[in-house]
Specification:
single chain; Rossmann fold; 2 domains; alpha/beta; binds magnesium ion; Alpha-Beta Plaits; binds adenosine-5'-triphosphate
Length: 303
């Protein structure tokens, strides 16, 4: 697998106010996005996600460090033509209809009118926007604007999609559609980098994530490797009389008449309790390994 994006030692500081105050938005960030993966850039408000995306797109210049996009150092017009971008706060032309906006975007890439019409209709269908296609954008809801923004990002069938908060403003059905769309695009070989606050969405679809806090990269890794560690086991035991655990470390989380829900720290205690089940005549109904969620991991990092 080759690398679609390499960020090496990128820093960016903003100066604001009459008496200039420095805001360190990115501090020595290095990360790579592999071709064909879905990469999630996660972090709380003000972490530097949008700043990083703007640097990748050459909308702002980092103070130091280098960025290579689709095999070329930025700024690269070749790389830019293979990219689709959805901004965090898309600026749309209020008086254009959805269809006109998509047409305008397709034309910016130099498509002829036949290709433009074909592509616009495909995108309107993909995002279920045919009915609203000829309505002015100022009459769109937030979710509809987000959909038309995504359609615009995909209009030129980009190799690499960069999406700043693509789930924002979408209801659960809309978010699932965007997740499914990203998985579908990945299966067709596209690379996706997106920022998000919605960790459950990131956990479901990302191959790898990076957690950014106050401009610093806290961790990068595959979702599997970050959350695979088993923290404990939960066991459900059915017993007519109170089971005796003979000093095996455990915690009773809940109990009903004949059911006990136990938490044990490791597989050793699971085996020890299994061994007791025959002599004490209790049944084991379930054994469920407990893993950290991406959310728990994230909350631990942003403290
Ligand atoms: N043009 C600018 N001028 C001054 N400060 C800026 C500018 N752009 C960003 N910042 C500051 O840089 C920091 C990072 O901002 P950024 O927008 O990258 O965060 P973010 O992770 O995208 O946050 P959010 O989740 O709210 O979108 C913040 O402290 C922000 O105030
Ligand atoms: Mg942002």
């Amino acid at each position: 697998m080759s690398t679609a994006l390499t960020i090496s030692g990128v820093s960016k500081t903003f100066k604001t106010g009459f008496i200039p105050k420095k805001i360190v938005a990115l501090e020595n960030i290095s990360l790579e996005v592999e071709q064909g993966e879905i990469f999630g850039l996660l972090g709380p408000n003000g972490a530097g996600k949008t700043t990083a995306i703007k640097c990748i797109l050459s909308l702002i210049r980092p103070d130091s460090g280098t960025i290579e996009l689709l095999g070329s150092p930025i700024p690269s017009s070749r790389a830019k033509s293979r990219i689709g971008f959805l901004s965090e706060n898309p600026y749309v032309y209020d008086f254009l209809s959805g269809r006109e906006y998509l047409r305008f975007s397709a034309r910016l890439y130099g498509n002829d009118s036949a290709t433009t019409e074909k592509r616009v209709n495909e995108m309107l269908a993909l995002f279920h926007m045919e009915e609203a296609a000829d309505r002015q954008l100022k009459k769109y809801s937030k979710g509809m604007l987000q959909r038309i923004g995504l359609a615009q990002a995909l209009i030129n069938n980009p190799d690499f999609l960069i999406l700043d908060e693509p789930m924002s403003g979408l209801d659960p059905v809309g978010r699932k559609e965007v997740r499914d769309l990203m998985i579908d695009l990945k299966s067709k070989g596209h690379t996706i980098l997106f920022s998000s606050h919605i960790l459950s969405d990131a956990e479901l679809i990302c191959d790898r994530v990076a957690i950014l806090v106050r401009g610093k990269l806290q961790m990068t890794g595959s979702v599997q490797s970050l959350i695979k560690k088993i923290e404990a086991y939960e066991m459900t035991i059915v017993s007519q009389s109170a089971p005796l655990f003979n000093g095996i470390p455990h915690e009773i989380i809940a109990r009903s008449e004949s059911q006990y829900l136990l938490k044990v720290p490791s597989i050793e205690e699971v085996h020890a309790i299994l061994a007791l089940s025959a002599s004490q005549h209790f049944a084991i109904e379930s054994i469920v390994p407990q893993r950290k969620t991406l959310e728990q991991l994230y909350l631990g990092q942003i403290k």
